[in-house]
Specification:
By secondary structure, the protein is an alpha/beta fold. It is built from 22 helices and 10 strands.
Amino acid sequence: MIKESNIWIKCTQELSKVLSEKEMRTWIKPLGVKYSESGISLLAPNKFMKEEVERNFLDKIMFVVGQLHSNLVVDLSVESKVKHGQSIVTPRGFRTNLNKEMTFDTFVEGKSNQLAKAACLSVVNEPGMFNPLYIYGGVGLGKTHLLHSIGNLLSKANKKVVYLHSEKFVQNMVTALRNSQMEEFKRFYRNLDVLLIDDIQFFAGKERSQEEFFHTFNALFEYKKQVVLTCDKYPKEISGLEDRIKSRLVWGMNVSIDPPDLETRVAILQAKSEALGSSITNEVAFFLAKNINSNVRELEGNLRRVIATSRFKKCDITLEFTKETLADLLSLNQRMITIDQIQKITANYYKTRVSDILSSKRDKKITLPRHMAMALCKDLTNNSLPSIGDGFGGRDHTTVIHANKKISKLKKEDAQIAQDYINIVHILNNG
């Protein structure tokens, strides 16, 4: 037996310096260890984990062990005894994959996400009540944060929870097929209490994955286990997804998340700056919120950029400093988001003409695109209400206010209108 029986502890301490907390939690800490005269044997609870560790981490482990104890042999195997009843016992990190920092407490609530948050809390209070819960909206609006928030609370209630991206589900299934482990794969997912899958649009076109997901969902649904899914589109809008799956998705509750309004963006910035150990003035917060309106991810990314630059230069975060730091972004936004561009893209989206939007025509096929374009101009540009009205054929600013209220109301009442708004914003921000 080697003298240093705690060498694996020292090894994990060194690995934590070069690997992320999630990598350590998911792949390194769950490994068992046995010591012998010649070295150490690392024990993975299943072939899934062994293959992932072997491919991505074994070289790093061997290097660190070699630094701590020269000529020590390291091998990796599956410990067949790591079983519990009929289900696969996987390490806690792998089983949940949850980000502990993403909770309801750190989620900034606003009008754009109020319903989605309420639905998620209902799922926590009574799992299986809405099944599935389907959250849809554009990139970076908080869908993933809500999934983790649900998972974190339910895992504390001793529920077996898994969060994963749809591509990871596909990858795990392919690995199971290759290793003749489909029965274990099925048992693992179908014995969960809560399954949280992100971005299910990536199932589109993958027939075998869709089939397995379909049967997994049916098994969980039958036993009143909770399934929560996110996507960038309303179920019926996902091309390449089987009709039988679409029909299952509309069984439960479908809720959308819209881009946050100005006040919510300001609240997000203030909360995030405090979490990052810096404070910003209301003036800076409103300036950032007005100029970055596509999604929360971009908002937080640019806030981090401002804070990091201020620390590097040892400068206070003033309005002028913020403008200087984000000069390239602001210049890009000024070139991209204009009243004319919004009118053109909105007209094209609704298959009408800009001249019709600017006209005095009042039929529904024209008024909806007109109101949508006005609302988008108010939300996405820095133009004043009179300027926007003037850009729509010399209309009064009260017309813009009416259009904005109309679209806000329709978004709450009609899922398709809400999705139209999200789609047009996405087109505007992605050229």
